[in-house]
């Protein structure tokens, strides 16, 4: 679907309430919110819950500054509304999962996504009240105190918005019975690694939701390559994931003679293959700056080290290691691994670049919609808030797409 077709679909599906003067942004925002709310809250048994959900959406869109429950309530109905809003988010019984599935389904009816992008979201916190808060040494963030979550983003040619979330729960929140009870963490929540958390976030979507099956972009580094890639391959899901320079592989590509059979790191393989690089022209929508002369890249057939048995690929299956150089360094700027073994190097790079769009959107409009703004010990409250914040993000993105100039597709994503 082209951009113009996607934008037209946004207007057509939304109905007559969207067809109003663009110079009235407040009215347009309210109409778009009402349209989406009718879809999102169809699973709510009570009318007052549906109304509160719509008000919370509008509050997330219209409240200036931090999108805390107090600020949203103050903006929408004064101090008297705060207790009602707090109960609706932290103590009510409505299930956020059908709301998220309804959001993903609504967007998919406008046009199928190009990919489902999994992107990490660190949430700095000063205290220890919020559920999942911990102090860790993160390889990318350094010493970090706060929550960590993974979002699953619907990414199409014209829209980019999160539809599902998984909050990482450190062991201190799962093993401490008092903390667990106070946060109302479900009995089924068990310990998992960050990598497992990222994978489960998207497999939840593709395993049970009625949404189109599309490639997955894991825009986060994976370490257990064979296990993680094997899960997607066995499920029949195409995936491309970031890997670190020390990830181990065995080369099978005949284009790299003399390196087959032994274990090498991803960086060693990429450096050895520098002579095989080809220039691939990309656009900013693929994560490379507009006007760039292109990216040097190479894709090689590999398997995850230590997983070959009796002459056959074992858990991870046949894979492709993708290395990209955006500058003049001898080592690559980015390393990816994928089970999409028949896709061209340029197509793989464009697919991987979709992760950069989610990253930029999270840094920009994600802050405006309050994705990081919930502060409470309630596990369910966090999920309800971020579900509605994601819906607000979708409303903003839909309006932007429906009013965007037609030449947008030729400009920055």
Could you explain how this protein is built, in words?
With 413 residues, the protein is α+β, with helices and mostly antiparallel strands. The chain has two domains: 3-215 and 359-410, no CATH class; 224-339, no CATH class. Helices cover 42% and strands 21% of the residues. It contains 14 helices and 14 strands. It has helices spanning 3-14, 25-40, 47-62, 69-77, 80-91, 96-110, 171-175, 177-183, 194-208, 225-234, 266-272, 345-363, 365-368, 379-403; strands spanning 115-124, 134-138, 142-155, 160-167, 216-222, 239-243, 248-251, 263-265, 278-280, 295-304, 308-309, 312-313, 319-325, 334-338. Strands 1, 2, 3, 4, 5, 6, 7, 8, 9, 10, 13 and 14 form a twelve-stranded mixed sheet that branches. Strands 11-12 form a two-stranded antiparallel sheet. Helix 1 (3-14) packs across helix 14, helix 4 packs across helix 5 and helix 6 packs parallel to helix 14. The two termini are 16 Å apart. Residues 1-23, 284-292 and 406-413 have low confidence and may be disordered.
Short description, anyone?
With 413 residues, this protein is α+β, with helices and mostly antiparallel strands. It has helices spanning 3-14, 25-40, 47-62, 69-77, 80-91, 96-110, 171-175, 177-183, 194-208, 225-234, 266-272, 345-363, 365-368, 379-403; strands spanning 115-124, 134-138, 142-155, 160-167, 216-222, 239-243, 248-251, 263-265, 278-280, 295-304, 308-309, 312-313, 319-325, 334-338. The strands form two sheets. Strands 1, 2, 3, 4, 5, 6, 7, 8, 9, 10, 13 and 14 form a twelve-stranded mixed β-sheet that branches. A two-stranded antiparallel ribbon has the order 11-12.
